[in-house]
Specification:
The protein is of the alpha+beta class. It folds into 3 domains: 115 residues, Nucleic acid-binding proteins (OB fold (Dihydrolipoamide Acetyltransferase, E2P)), CATH 2.40.50; 111 residues, Beta Barrel (OB fold (Dihydrolipoamide Acetyltransferase, E2P)); 147 residues, OB fold (Dihydrolipoamide Acetyltransferase, E2P), CATH 2.40.50.140. Helices cover 17% and strands 46% of the residues. Strand 15, helix 3 and strand 16 form a beta-alpha-beta unit. The longest helix has 13 residues.
């Protein structure tokens, strides 16, 4: 029957892919490996990222769908004209499922069609209706649902955003436990305060550039925990020193500290120009989003740090770069004009940093190009080589 429908549509004009040839199911009925399914579900979370493939940049979307039977992660790869937002009820046709990290995942391929069901209401299962899984913060991974955590609030801010033309309030910040830190978003005012211990049941985990982010809302359960359940705020707020190898395995980290040798100051360091609209770096007078623009001058450093277990690229902003150089951006501009070459600033950074040990602190994310730290602080370390050698010899002697 399905083949007959497609033949008729193809013969008399139309797109056979728009036909509903899959099996309509609820989230609870989904299993891995189904080649074609239909689904009516609500978009609970939505994220996007860009991938480089065959020399072209592609944007993919991922998040979580839900209905009154449960929730499921999804990824949309090649859906033309995809225009969905958090809160939309969508009718999905000709999608397929696979197993990802031990769970069922829905994939939108190039055969899939997505229709927003305007005005359609759909109840989503409460997280409390499914088994809860207790997790430490360092165990959180993209796609996890219905997690239970105990953490201390390090910081929190209130932001107003627009969702489908309506103003919404989201509370975001950082949580910590003895194993690490994670960024969070709360789409409900729980009256959170910095320093307090909370227990959250029913959160789900999305990701931004590989960095897990915990999200919870009014459907989640939140209670105040015992003050003694976790180390004090001052201890948890300190950046944890990690090996880069660990960051590679986890896909990044929140507010971590690394020590290593600067092996390269990359192209794009020193004096650069940014688009006044989106702040992207301007190449040859053009922004890849806004076209030809008059760039605004900025100063930064892109340093490759290697600690023996792995390497990452650390970005030092204008303020950090000025501190490293010992001169302001205006002084750097004047020096470049005198030399008639802006590369003199990058050369100065290379002379200052390459082959020197540094300690950097910040958030580390990951993409197709590897790990990247947006540094909050950086220090060039002065190493007593003789003392280091003695300590090594003593260790080897033991």
């Amino acid at each position: 029957m399905d083949a007959a429908k497609r033949s008729i549509v193809r013969k008399y004009g139309g797109n056979p892919a728009l036909l509903s040839i899959g099996t309509t199911k609820t989230v609870k009925e989904l299993s891995a490996g189904e080649p074609s399914i239909n689904l009516l579900a609500k978009v609970i979370s939505l994220n996007s990222r860009e991938l480089e493939q065959d020399g072209k940049t592609k944007e993919i979307y991922y998040g979580i769908l839900g209905d009154d039977t449960g929730t499921v992660p999804f990824t949309a790869w090649e859906v033309r004209g995809l225009n969905i937002q958090v809160g939309d009820v969508i009718r999905l046709q000709n999608a397929y499922t696979k197993e990802f990290r031990g769970e069922v995942q829905v994939n939108f391929g190039n055969r899939a069609t997505v229709t927003v069901e305007g005005g359609t209401l759909l109840e989503v299962a409460s997280p409390q209706e499914a088994p809860l899984t207790r997790r430490n913060l360092d165990e959180l991974q993209e796609g996890m649902r219905n997690v239970r955590i105990t953490a201390r609030v390090l910081d929190i801010e209130r932001r107003e955003v627009e969702v489908r033309g309506e103003p919404k309030v989201v509370f975001s910040g950082t949580l910590a436990d003895a194993t690490g830190k994670v960024q969070f978003s709360a789409w409900h005012d729980f009256g959170l305060e910095p320093g307090e211990v909370i227990e959250v049941e029913g959160g789900y985990v999305s990701a931004w550039r590989g960095l897990p982010q915990l999200t919870f809302d009014e459907r989640s359960r939140l209670e105040r925990g015992k003050e003694t359940a976790l180390p004090p705020l001052e201890e948890l707020d300190r950046a944890r020193r990690v090996w880069i190898e660990e960051l590679v395995q986890k896909g990044g980290g929140v507010d971590v500290q690394v020590r290593g040798i600067v092996v390269e100051v990359r192209e794009g360091s020193g004096l650069i120009h940014r688009c006044p609209e989106c702040r992207r770096v301007v190449q040859k007078g053009a922004c890849r989003i806004h076209g030809e623009v008059k760039g605004e001058t900025d100063l930064r450093t892109k340093a490759v740090i290697d600690d023996g277990s792995g390497a990452l690229t650390a970005i030092f902003n204008r303020e950090l770069t000025e501190t490293l150089l010992g001169k302001s951006m205006d002084e750097a501009i004047a020096e470049a004009k005198e030399a008639m070459d802006s590369e003199v600033i990058r050369d100065a950074l290379s002379d200052l940093l390459v082959a020197r040990p540094v300690q950097a602190q910040g958030n580390v994310t990951s993409d197709d190009y590897g790990l990247m730290m947006i540094a909050r602080s950086v220090t060039v370390l002065e190493v007593d080589v003789q003392a280091e050698a003695r300590a090594l010899l003593e260790e080897l002697g033991d």
